[in-house]
Write a structure and sequence with these properties.
five-stranded parallel beta sheet; 19 helices; about 375 residues; alpha/beta
Length: about 375
């Protein structure tokens, strides 16, 4: 059993008079984690928001009706809660009742669950994000040396739990994930009229990992207007498939101020979209692939270890750049990301003059562990 970093966090929040909300893409292990946490608990009721019967129950019932349906249950888990209309209001009614029931809601997309929950449940919820397995979790599972030896496979196949636990069947599992599960929420969204163009957009984003992204350029590639491209990208973010990294600018006129990069939460999904499972040593895109791996793993690490920082990249019109920046505690930390452990890199003088005191580090496979572990 691979213990998730959220295990203790969630277990400690039980029966604290608040709804627990767990959000993350489909198939990242939300239900498995909750079953591990609750395996010795009694009177646990599991409900699936994908089922029409459960949707109708929550959409139309009062708090008293819901509590009656829960019966003697002490803990109620509502999976895929984003499928239920006005779920935030229903959870608020339960939270405001005199019941001692611990309500836990999971969601594989945030465009309905998180947005509807935030206002009604202000002050009444604990909310957490869950991702595919992380480098830190696998180090805890079988040690740092073994996980470092697995790096070439992780860079290609990623960290989805089913992929990690089924060595030799990675390609088949990733194809199933990208063909079915990950887009279920998006494709059922009523405004998605061109699923084929959504796939084209995802492939275009996969090829542009590590590069600045232009919505106008993407719109031409996908035969969509730029507003639709931006809407689709927002939905893909809200389903935890991709995330944006904004550009950093404070002092210099020639800094790029409104640019962005887009990364995938998981390398395996990115590679599945372009059907490229070649080993790192023969890939032309290893630089971009390594950058996606490092930035996504750092994002997971920051979230799980509660490092509260703002993340950016930096680039000027003269093409001076820094791969990754973090701002926290009044300090800046700059990172260059290099696959080759022997690669040399220094902080550009333009940046160091504009932002004196910035810490600098090169992240390679040799320095990866110190960068990602607590």
């Amino acid at each position: 059993m691979i213990e998730r970093l959220l295990h203790k966090t969630l277990a400690d929040k039980l029966f604290k008079k608040k709804v627990i909300i767990l959000i993350g893409a489909r198939q990242v292990g939300k239900t498995t984690l909750l079953r591990q946490i609750l395996r010795e608990k009694e009177n646990v009721l599991w409900l699936n928001g994908d089922e029409m019967q459960i949707q109708n129950l929550f959409e139309n019932a009062s708090a008293d009706r819901l509590l009656a349906e829960f019966g003697d249950s002490k803990i109620v888990i509502l999976d895929e809660a984003q499928r239920i209309k006005n779920i935030g209001l229903r959870l608020k009614l339960i939270a405001d009742s005199d019941s001692d029931i611990q309500m836990i809601a999971t969601g594989s997309s945030s465009f309905e669950l998180a947005n509807e929950v935030n206002e009604p449940l202000t002050g009444r919820k604990w909310e957490y994000r869950m991702f595919p397995l992380s480098f830190g979790e696998m180090v805890t599972h079988h040690g740092k040396l073994k996980e470092l030896r697995m790096l070439p496979r992780r860079i290609v196949y990623g960290y989805y739990p089913e992929v990690v636990m089924n060595e030799g069947n990675e390609v088949e599992i990733l194809k199933l994930l990208t063909d079915a599960y990950l887009y279920k929420d998006i494709l059922s969204w009523e405004n998605i009229k061109h699923p084929d163009k959504l796939q084209t957009l995802l492939r275009a984003l996969a090829y542009q990992v590590g590069s600045q992204v232009s919505f106008n350029e993407l719109s031409q590639m996908c035969s969509l207007d730029s507003k639709t491209v931006e809407k689709y990208i927002t939905l893909l973010e809200q389903c935890y498939i991709i995330f944006r990294l904004p550009s950093f600018s404070r002092n210099l006129r020639h800094e790029l101020k409104a640019s962005r990069k887009i990364y995938f939460y998981d390398n395996g999904i990115r590679n599945a979209l372009i059907a490229d499972y070649n080993a790192p040593e023969v890939r032309q895109d290893i630089g971009a692939l390594w950058e996606n791996f490092i930035v996504s793993e750092r994002m997971k690490s920051n979230e799980y270890y509660h490092r509260w920082v703002n993340s950016y990249f930096w680039r000027t019109k003269q093409q001076q750049e820094i791969d990754y920046l973090e701002e926290g505690g009044g300090k800046l930390h700059a990172y260059e990301i290099k696959w080759n452990p022997k690669a040399k890199s220094t902080l550009t003088k333009t940046f160091s003059d504009a932002y004196p005191g910035t810490a600098f580090q090169v992240i390679t496979p040799d320095t990866l562990a110190d960068f990602l572990l607590l």
